[in-house]
Each structure stands twice: as structure tokens, then as C-alpha cells.
Amino acid sequence: MQVFRQFFIASFPFSKLLALALLALAAALALPSLGSAQAPVVAPEDVSTPTPTPLALPSPAPAPTGPDFAAPQPMARTLHLAGDAPVTYTVQPGDTLFSVALEMGLDLTDVPCAVAPTFTVEQPLVIGDVLSAPPANVLCHEVAPGETVESIAARYRVDPAQIRSLPWNRLPAEGEAALVPRTHLRVPLILSPGRTAIDADLDFLLTMLNMPVDTSPFIVFAQKSASRKPTTPIGPVPADWPYGSGRFTWPVYGWLSQGYRFDHRAIDIAAPQGTPVTAADRGIVIRAGWNNQGYGRFVVIDHQIDYVTLYAHLDRIFVQEGEVVGQGQVIGTVGSTGNSTGPHLHFEIRDFGRLTNPLELLTAP
Ligand SMILES: [Zn+2]
Question: What's the first-to-final CA gap in the chain, in angstroms?
Fold first, then answer.
């Protein structure tokens, strides 16, 4: 989503931005419980009794005050809960940017900002290096030729001092440092004081993007199924056919307990421990085992059509790496392993390594 936002903020005229903000508001009105406090996980006994809470419109975040820019507050990028220790990962033999993104739960484009500010994607990863995930409210920017801290700050509508204040960037507090093209800067997404009305629109949009989405799958189905194009079934395929259809089915029957947000680019589906988890599409298992960075026991399936799906916190795993699985095949069971507060499936869809909103790709049941 940061990629999306980067494009979005950089390229969209603000009339469009405002229109999108209004769209987001319209979406908010369609949801029953935006703005309500949300438990991280819905207990299984609550699953069958959805109780919509009264609509509460979000109020935009208050503008920062004070003569100086406050140091950006890091916001934990976590699988589920804020306030966890930063996610670190030690580079293993054979690792690539893609495998590191999977292990750390990062978008592929954010991995360079877990390595070092001097890192370029042409450089090899160093075995044994300890990588640290950037906070969720930080954007990873690849420096283009001719760019300066000022021009980058202007692009993201933040103050240059906020970029310089991040120790990770290793920039001098004053003066223009020469930036090396292809290296990376962390850009905090915090708006500076003294904003214009246009800034307020952006602020509101960011507020909307930051809202936890707590809604029922039934509403989601109603929203999404209307615009979905029908797909043509390709018929039976050989057992070892490794290619997915691009038409994803729900991996577990349960309750949507966490939606897709900037700091949780996945969905959580709560279900009783032991509920079967199925492959959302045909593909090859590229990971089946334990992950130390919070996923717990997890399975990753490469659908060979640019899409990869990830299933985390599993109790049991029934597949092995290298195995071809069919759509709907049981690959494991719901559990609460890793960074999890109760039985649920954490489900990601990655498109070319970029985390996308599964709700926009899952078919209605
Ligand atoms: Zn999750």
C-alpha cells in the first residue's frame, strides 16, 4: 500500500485526492462499525452473532503543535498488535529480497529500508546481517538522480527536518547532503504544522486509511461481488499443473477480525482452532514451516502468475515445500502460533511481492 500511496500522493491532482477521500467516506458510511474499538481477535463463540455498532465518523487527527517538529513517533509494523518489539531478521544463505520480504512480513519495496540507507537493490544481501523492519508509518523511498532531501520532502508533503531527524537516514541536521541515486531514505508520513486546506484533505485521507476496518464478510461480499467480472473456468487440469487461476477462494470459513490497513496489509479470519485452511488457488508450496518473525507456523504458495498467498499462525501443516496444491486443498489448520492472541488465520496476497488487499481479490463464496 505504501507503493500505492507513493504513486497516489505524488501523481494525483488534489481534486482527485479529494474525490477519493469522499469515496473513502462513502465506504465508511457503508460499514457499520468504523471507529469502534476493535478486539484483535474475535472469539469463536462470537462468530455467529454479528452485532453492528452505531456508525461513528472518524475525526481527523489533531494537527501537531509546538514550535519545533516533533520527532516522528515510530509506529510498529506488526502482524497484529501495536507495541511489539521491532521485527528483526538475520540474513540466511540463499536469501533474496523476495524471501526476506516474506520472512519479515514486509512489502518487497520496503525491504531496502530494512537493510541500510546505503543499500541499492543491485547489491547482494550479506549473510549474517541483522535487518530491522521500518515502522509502519514510514515510507521507503529510492533516491532518483538529482533528488535532494528538500525535493523528496516536498514530494511527500513532509518537512525536510522530519526526514533528517530519523537516525536511520544518517543525514546531517543542517545543510543539503548529497544523496546517492538508488540508495534509500525512510520518509515519515507525518504532516507538518502550518498546513493549507489541501493538506487537511490529505490528512483526512490518511486518517481514513489508518482507520481499522472491522466489518463482516457479508458486507464485504456485497460490496465486492457487484463489480467483479465473471471468470471462465478452465476445466480440469493435470495434478501437477502449478499455475493458479487468479480467482482466489476464501481459505477458511470464519469471521473477518482484522481488515487491510497500512500497518496490517493482510486480513485476519477468526475461526476455531483446528478449522481446515485451504489453498486459495492452485500453486506450488514455497514455504511450509516455522517463522520467527511473528507468523508462527506458516505456508506460502506461489501461484506462478505473479501472485503469492501466505497463511500464518497455523496449528498444523499438511503440505511440504515443493508440493503442488490444488485450489481448495486443505493445507493446514487454524491455530494461534507466533504473534497471535487467539485462533485465526492471517492471510496475505502478494502481487509481484507487493502486499495487496485480499478483499479485492477474493471471490464471493
Ligand atoms: Zn493478521
Answer: 25
> How far, in Å, is the centroid of ligand 1 from the Cα of 35?
19
Here the CATH number for the domain that contains residue 152 is 3.10.350.10
Tell me the per-residue pLDDT of 38-80, one tens digit each, with 9 for 90 and over: 333 434 443 443 444 444 444 444 444 444 444 445 555 545 4
Q: Are residues 328 and 205 in the same domain?
A: yes
Between the CA of 323 and the centroid of ligand 1 the distance, in Å, is 25
**Residues 115-130: tens digit of each pLDDT:** 999 999 999 999 999 9
Kindly state whether residues 165 and 285 are assigned to the same domain.
no
Residue 40 CA to ligand 1 centre (angstroms) = 9
* Same domain for 349 and 218: yes
Residue 300 lies in a domain: yes
CATH number at residue 263: 2.70.70.10
What is the C-alpha separation between 162 and 169, in angstroms, rounded? 11
Distance CA 18, CA 141 (A): 24
Task: Find the domain containing 180 and state its range.
Answer: 87-134+138-188
For the stretch 163-168, contacts whose Cβ atoms lie closer than 8 Å and that sit 24 or more positions apart, written own/partner, are 163/187, 163/188, 165/69, 165/71, 165/72, 166/72, 166/138, 168/113, 168/117, 168/134
- Find out whether 313 and 297 touch, Cβ atoms under 8 Å: yes
Q: How far is the CA of 202 from the centre of ligand 1 (A)?
A: 27
- The total of structural domains in the chain comes to 2
Give, as residue ranges, everything with CB less than 5 Å from ion ligand 1. 80, 266, 268, 346
Q: Is the same domain home to 97 and 203?
A: no
Q: Is 59 helix (H, G, I), strand (E, B) or coil?
A: coil
Do residue 355 and residue 219 come from a single domain? yes
Same structural domain, 216 and 126: no
Distance 14 CA to ligand 1 centre (A): 32
pLDDT in tens, 186-205: 998 764 455 443 454 455 45
